[in-house]
């Protein structure tokens, strides 16, 4: 199995590096080089085995959606020199993530089941069922934590704490709704429902940019549109394309990253099945066949060569 789970590049002009749960971000003078690795995380922990082609899937889906939403708001992307890499503008990221939900499911449903009727300052009606549509999409932001759990937070608290100014928050709230509407339309054209997603924004020279990935299976949840209503009426689980199936597999195997719980073994066969699901989503959401990138014997060497050549071409 070929999967890139660790990087240690030294690009020309490199000032630093940040190793996230899934992405490794290399900081240059005025640019960032974002490598989408094949690591996979769930419940705020990185799983011990990589998923072949996952990084390529995430990077290429995000690149396509950044291109198809550039008319809504400016974004950080400059180029995709390698199937697993995006190079873009360095921005000062806001310390919040903008999560928008069209349907009550996932963590929001788990909270609702416990009796929660207000999520991030948004009032939720009684009597909702799992996978029921909200009257209109709701925005439920979280703080952005470098380590550990992101925490739910309301718009009012974000502004009160000075995490984002009132003026900037109104801009990113507007962008969030418009980006989600575009994503929903593109998904609907492909027979999918964009259920929920997250966006991150940053600032550069006083201008707000969309940053990081968008509309990927790591940041979003998709249901198949065909059969959604029938399954909902019967109370049956929805057919979905998202990382939720990995979370469900972990929960079924007794793991939610709580004290005393042990990570289940991830076999090569299971990792391949997850890879197949990621490729399936790519082909559904883009309408294109997924072209597996050749590793030429060494994925890291290929990335280093492609990125270095791109950086030289900018001089």
- The general outline is globular
How much helicity do the residues have?
A: 25-40%
- How would you state the average pLDDT, rounded? 93
Q: In percent, how much strand structure appears in the residues?
A: 25-35%
Structural class: alpha+beta
E-strand count: 17
The main sheet comes to: 8 strands, antiparallel
Separate helix tally = 8
**Alpha-carbon distance between the two ends:** 37 Å
Rounded Rg:
19 Å
Question: What are the low-pLDDT stretches, counting only 5+ consecutive residues below 50?
Answer: none
Order of helices and strands: EEEEEHEEEEHEEEEHHEEEHEHHH
Give me some keywords for this one.
315 residues, alpha+beta, 8-stranded antiparallel sheet, 5-stranded antiparallel sheet, 8 helices, 33% helix
Q: What would your notes on this structure say?
A:
It is built from eight helices and 17 strands. The longest helix is centred in the middle third of the chain and has 24 residues, at 166-189. The model has no long low-confidence stretch (mean pLDDT 93). Helix 1 (54-68) packs parallel to helix 7 (268-286). The protein is globular. The strands form four sheets. Strands 8, 9, 12, 13, 14, 15, 16 and 17 form an eight-stranded antiparallel β-sheet that branches. It has a five-stranded antiparallel β-sheet with strand order 1-2-3-7-6. A two-stranded antiparallel ribbon has the order 4-5. The chain has 315 residues and is α+β, with helices and mostly antiparallel strands. It has helices at 54-68, 106-113, 155-161, 166-189, 228-234, 244-252, 268-286, 299-313, and strands spanning 16-19, 23-27, 31-36, 41-42, 45-46, 77-82, 85-89, 92-93, 96-104, 118-119, 122-123, 132-139, 142-143, 192-204, 207-211, 220-224, 240-242.
